[in-house]
Structures are given as C-alpha cells and as structure tokens.
Specification:
This protein has about 240 residues and is an alpha/beta fold. It has nine helices and twelve strands.
Length: about 240
C-alpha cells in the first residue's frame, strides 16, 4: 500500500534518516518506536509528503508519492500531526465533518469515540487531551485507506490512550485500514500493534512482529536500557531494570 526505499534525510549536515526501507500493508497496525531524536517524526512527515528527502523513493499504491497532488494524497492518507493548530474556532462537529467522507461518518465516529457530548463545543475551548481525541475522530471519519499518526495518544490519560489505540485497531480490522502510528509508550505499542519498526539514530534497526520485537536485544540497545520482560495476564510487558530493582 505504501512503501519507502532507501530514504535518507540530511539537514544542515545532520543525518535525520539513514537508508530507511519500510512498508505498510492493508489490515495491519504498525507502531514506530525509538528514543527521542531517532527520526520517528521525520519518517512520518516524509511518508505524507511534508518532509523532503535527500535521496530514496516512496510509493503509494505502486505510484510515486511525489506524483500525487495534495488533494489526491488526502483521499488515500489521513494524517494526525504531533502538534495541531486551529486557525478557526469551529465546533467539534464542524472540525470532524470537514475531514469526513460523509456527514454521517462524522456523527458515527463521534458517537463511537464517546465524543457526541462535545459536538457543539468550540475546539479551542477543549483541553489538549480532548483535542487529541477529536483529531483522531476526524482522521478516522475520512475513511481513507491509510492512517499515519504521530503520537496520537501523547496528551491522553492511560484509559484514553488504550481507548484511542483500540479504536484504531478496530478500524484496521473492520475495513482493512493500514495504520502506521508513532507511539512513545512501549507497552502500548506492543499491546496493540501487529508489527514494530524500531528507529535508532536515524536507522531502522528492527522490523518485526510485535511479539518478537518485544524480546529483541535491539530494543535494549536503542534505548540504552536493560529491559525486563514480564508476563502479565498471558501477555509480556517490558520495564527498565532500575524500575523493578
């Protein structure tokens, strides 16, 4: 569905991405993880055409991404940026409807994400977490074939983080959405993702199924941590060693 080949991004002598090749297929949820400064946001900006690459190629539906107009690209890809700016103080329903495939899709996703009570609220009156949920609703209401999101759970509390990721995974399963999501919380990534991309110093050091990536030593190396893997309720989670010593 979307594919990157040998992506490199160099800015002012700094290598932000170094020979990255990856792909996203329909019906899978891929989590992008890595320490701060690893290149996660740069990668997603490249994939949605907001960051110029120094070299390499990107393809959407077997066609070079650069050949799409912004309007064409928006029909295929919904994007949630890490920082959201709101130039107009619209209501929540208006914000979601602007990005929705149909008005009915907007109302349906607001109900699904328990946001119907916010419909008439002004977007600028909401907290950061509430705005994050609204932007997720807008992205899902577009019903594009791809969702690319940069830390969509960053401003949410623990319960809301899980609800947001569960909503994304449900859409992935329900309509074969391809979702690539930057996630800061490792256990959130391992719980909900099908596959993990691990970035470290601009390099892709691991691309594997989530249950395999959790046990990989590349994880410890990237974060410069010794992680302890613990089975809880039939699922493994990770903790930095010093947190449990």
């Amino acid at each position: 569905m979307i594919r990157a080949e040998n992506l490199c991004v160099v800015r002012k002598g700094a290598v932000l991405l170094n020979d990255i090749s990856c792909h996203l297929e329909p019906g899978e949820l891929v989590a992008v993880i890595g320490p701060n400064g690893a290149g996660k946001s740069t990668l997603v900006k490249c994939l949605v055409g907001l960051e110029k690459t120094t070299s390499g190629q990107m393809f959407l539906q077997q066609r070079p991404i650069a050949s799409y107009t912004p309007r064409e690209r928006a029909r295929h890809v919904s994007y949630i940026a890490q920082q959201q700016e709101f130039l107009w103080d619209l209501t929540v329903l208006e914000v979601v409807t602007l990005g929705a495939k149909t008005p009915g899709a907007a109302e349906g996703i607001l109900a699904h994400l328990a946001l119907r009570e916010f419909s008439d609220r002004r977007i600028k009156s909401l907290s950061g977490g509430e705005r994050a949920r609204v932007m997720l609703a807008r992205a899902l209401a577009a019903q594009a074939s791809l969702l690319i999101a940069d830390e969509p759970a960053a401003h949410l509390d623990v319960g809301q983080q899980r609800a947001a990721m569960a909503a994304i995974r449900q859409e992935v399963r329900r309509r074969a959405l391809g979702a690539l999501v930057v996630i800061h919380d490792l256990n959130l990534a391992f719980t909900f993702a099908d596959r993990i991309l691990l970035l470290d110093n601009g390099r892709l050091t691991l691309d594997d199924a989530a249950d395999q990536a959790l046990h990989a030593q590349e994880l410890d190396q990237a974060f410069n941590q010794s992680f302890i893997r613990v089975e809880v309720g039939g699922r493994f989670v990770v903790f930095p060693e010093e947190q449990v010593s």
